[in-house]
Amino acid sequence: MPTLDFVLARTPLVAFLTIFICFFVIYIRRKPNASRNHGVESPSPYPGKEAKQSRFGYPPVTPLPSFNWETTEPLVFRPFKPKFHLTMAITHLDLSDLIPMDKTYLSRLSLREKLLAEHPDVVRGVNIHTQNPTKNEKIREALCEWYAYVMGTYLPERYPTMFRLVDHLGTGNVKSEKMRKMMIESLVTGLKAPVDPEDLMRFCPTNIEDEDDTARTKTQLLYLLDTLGSWIDEDFLILLPSPVPPPSFEDHSSESDPELKSQYHLEAYTTYYPAGFDTRKKLSLSLSAIHAPLPGYKQKLSKSMDRFFERLEVGKAVVRVNWSIMPKGTGLFAAFGGLHNHSPNAERGNEKVEKLHPESFDGEDTFLRCERQTLHRLPNSKALLFAFHTYTYPLKDVKEEGLGEELAIAIDGLKEGSVPEIHEYKNGPYWGEAVKAFLRS
Fold first, then answer.
1. I need a labelling partner for 243 at 20 to 30 A (CA). Which of 123, 261, 328, 428 fits?
2. What ranges does the record give for the region Disordered, renumbered to this chain (predicted)?
């Protein structure tokens, strides 16, 4: 009987096929399992550096293994300048610093829960396109990508003392092949949620069986937004590009930008702490239309902002900080006025904004309000993610730091910079004199 060596020697084709099959089996066993959604892989949550760099298209997250959120003070910003000039004023941001945490985390989550119950149509929204399902898919892709990264990677890797990944049985023994059943557990609240957005949306508690595709998509994406909004104290807006429409006959050539190929429009958001505007009225608007109430934006920033948004590269992130004065009676949720004068009446809800008088103003319940704003591009969907974290500082703290005179000068500087109208836009005529007198007293 001929030996195996004899057969292989006499039949080169058999030898070739045998070797090919062996290599193919090895390749299949070593190939990582790819998620069927969102262009993300499904590695172990504790991979080596090489694996971490490729996950979700983001750079590796720098962990904070000893982070104690309960003793961490909020970041402190004092961004006011002697004269206000309307510029982008951006600096580079390390993506590991994308979502800050501090001792206000739990109380802020409680406030978010309350605001969601009271103002569900205001604090989050999705721009569903009834005539363009392709656009809806792009919105879904972007939201799912952001959710998967935040819940499956960023939170458990950046803050391991606050969040951890567990398998669907809750044993903590996570294996790569269980990625679609993996859960994130909050060690702060005890809550758990799937890290895969498709799993989350299948758990959507409302009965959506009888809804059409458009309504079902909206219900599921709102549920995804609600979940994110209950895990991170960060407001965010998803912007997607649309082709620049051809100039109309009435357009002036000096106002158009021939190099601009696309304009970004707001397609989804969670904003629990809007600074004097109702975000649902901004949904679907372009960047320039969103900023239309801002004095000087069209003349000084519109073109540069459109270009910057179009050209921002994956892996790059920027940060800026603004400031305003938050008078008594205006809370973190300021969707209906109180911070910025968007109308001649300067209304706060149904009440007129009352002018503060120096002789009766004691600085109580009045705050310096700052937004730490970040911008980066999602690696797979290429959507832009604009996020902001709102900080408030009692006015008396600024005074006690010895910065009272600097802030008082900056208040006058609102009228002396490149856009003097910004003083009225920030409601300066209502609180300016009283706040300055307090800071200098």
1. 123
2. 35-54
